[in-house]
Amino acid sequence: MRETVTFSRDGAIATVLIDNPPVNAASAAVRTGLAAALDRLDSDDSLQALIIRCAGRTFIAGADIKEFDGPQTEPQLPELIARIEASAKPVIAELHGTILGGGLELALGCHARIAAHDAQFGFPEVRLGIIPGAGGTVRTPRLAGLPLTISLAVEGKQVGSEEALAAGLIDRITDGALETATAEFARAIVAKGEPPRRTRDLPSPVADNELLDAAEQTARRRQRGQDAPLIALQAIRFGLAHDVDAALAEEHRLCRQAIASPQSSALRHLFLAERAVARTPGINPATPVRPINQVAVIGLGTMGRGIVTTLAAAGLKVIAIARSDESLTKARTAIDKAWAQSVTRGQIDEPARIDRADRVSWSTDLSAVAGADLVIESVGEVREIKEALFAALGSIAKPGAILATNTSYLDIDALAAASGRPADTCGMHFFNPADVMKLVECVRGKATAPDVVASVMALSKRLGKIAVVSGVCDGFIVNRMLAKRSREAYFLLEEGASPWAIDRVLVDFGFPMGPFALGDLAGIDLQHTVRQARADRLTPREKRADFVDQLFAAGRLGRRSGAGWYAYGEDGKAKPDPMTEALIAAHATKHAIKRVEITDEEIRDRLIFAMVNEGARLIDEGIVSRAQEIDVAMVNGIGFPRHLGGPLWWAQEMGLTGVADKIARFRDEQGDTYWPTSPTLGKGQFY
Ligand code: 3H9
């Protein structure tokens, strides 16, 4: 069995090697091994320096997240780092991969830091609802100043070696063999007899209150609802005003307090859930993956274009196919413009733009798919058109090519049957804008082969996306759950709520925007078309709540047309519109609905519990295998507030008995059709 920590020596230079895959997290075994190495360094007079090195793909990527909820075993990270810093003999950190969280803190406690040219540094703690708790907010300002400390510890950004070196966070970068460079460095300082340089002995920068106040305002705006960035700032401010020992103690106290918070539990749950969804029943590491180098995208509307740019950015060859020269030119012009804008904004450089453009070939001829390993269909949501297309793909695509549809709600099994290649067919459902949104729903049809699912999941990861596997149903995970929220929103309008009140409640809850502002952004015309296409699936009451159709008929097409639910003035800002209120009032009068006052709590519960109930039903029906799929999909697909952990995590935190009681009340009031009973919810536990 491999040792987690091994000690070796080369003359006067000792090396401690950490080998704790996959990311060398600073687990109890790693900490114990490091403490033992320090003992040997202390007790052996012939040793004069120690190198800390990690095996595998990275230096320590942080404390071990899986140990957070258990008892704290000794030695704890802050004490271990204090021991390293206090060592009378120099300790050198050899840095490669992602030096994150407690790993970076440990490096800052060392007396020198030598890094590979492509190393990355950061404090991702805020993404876990905590703050650096082993000196990050105390040592970083002393080494690298306040702006970088804020960027890393408050905003959770990462920097590369060059930036880290320029700021003083590390001492040297090597392009050559890292081990050789560190060994040479160690020998040189031993030869010179240089004493250890301790970060704690450096002067603290002055507290720049203007900078700190601005950072606080930014955090309140950009990381809205999240406590950790503000706590990180609190630790930084304290550190600037106190001596090192007091600052370290306060930082650790704040970190432990944050670990115990519901926000941190929710964020850590999501971190693990986002990785757990990669392991889905029937798919395992031994499942073969089909090679995908060339992808054809058919249909170059908004979604198709986003998919093309995402694929090209990830280095794939793309065949972009439109139905006419006109749509092809339109799409090509739009994509070229978007790439040029990315250059202007400094997001990519000119060679990268040329590279991406070179990877895409354009065609109006469907037979161009013949060379593709994967075909992603993204044409309009018309069943007959898609079925005809899949029938054609069945005869044109090369044997073994994967046939994927980006449909939002059509029956994938029917498309699979039409293709004549059901085992090769699946869904790859992207979210708008496809180049930004992290989620891809990988939809497994009745006959989809396991290696097809494994291949599209692997591809999604390559695209920087999170793939969640869903079975076939109307709307899959996100749109199916969202449809229940929209339904309740329309019913609440009939019953007495205003669009603005509903949007406000959801924004207060933590969503980036409410359903009506979102509707205006997506376009009322689009929603009207979807409503028409789905008319046969609507209940009489849903048909009656035809506000979208009324807005469409009035030419209120949303933000683009200057009015939708809201009115948009010259400044483009959404303003509640009395015309919409009049439309809703007239609707109520026409249908003899008595509108009443509706509380914020009722709005929140109706909208969120409708999603919770539907999420539970997705588990009941086996559309997803676990609650994790739901939470990951809703956070990454529609911006369910990350710090609440996803709808099912949040419901469990609220107390599922209470949630189930409320749902039962809604069932009594609104009927079984809308609030069907879920056995999974009845079990009283999602996790
Ligand atoms: C901290 O340090 C607190 C201190 O300030 C204070 C203490 C007092 N622990 O992401 P991947 C697992 S907080 C345990 O797919 P990649 C992960 O679950 C920590 N496990 O790989 C997965 O396991 P599985 C601050 C961890 O190559 C596997 O590694 N540090 C940890 O795409 C592969 O992960 C962070 O927040 C961990 N810390 O990305 C770093 N990290 O295969 C969080 C990962 O069983 N980690 N695992 O599902 C990351 O950002 C990415 O994992 C990393 C690699 C960039 C390192």
Structure, explained:
The protein has 687 residues and is an alpha/beta fold. It folds into three domains: 5-260, 2-enoyl-CoA Hydratase, Chain A, domain 1 (Alpha-Beta Complex); 294-474, NAD(P)-binding Rossmann-like Domain (Rossmann fold); 479-622 and 626-682, Orthogonal Bundle (N-(1-d-carboxylethyl)-l-norvaline Dehydrogenase, domain 2). The protein contains 29 helices and 19 strands. It has an eight-stranded mixed β-sheet, sandwiched between helices. Helix 1 packs parallel to helix 2, helix 5 (146-154) packs parallel to helix 8 and helix 9 packs antiparallel against helix 10. It is globular. The model has no long low-confidence stretch (mean pLDDT 96). The structure holds (S)-3-Hydroxyhexanoyl-CoA. (S)-3-Hydroxyhexanoyl-CoA (3H9) binds at residues 22-23, 25, 61-66, 77, 98, 100-102, 105, 124-125, 128, 132-134, 136, 255, 275. (S)-3-Hydroxyhexanoyl-CoA binds next to strand 5 and helix 3.
Concise summary:
The protein has 687 residues and is an alpha/beta fold. GO terms for molecular function: (3S)-3-hydroxyacyl-CoA dehydrogenase (NAD+) activity; enoyl-CoA hydratase activity; isomerase activity; NAD+ binding.
Features of the shown structure:
19 strands, 2-enoyl-CoA Hydratase, Chain A, domain 1, N-(1-d-carboxylethyl)-l-norvaline Dehydrogenase, domain 2, 8-stranded mixed sheet, 3 domains, alpha/beta, Rossmann fold
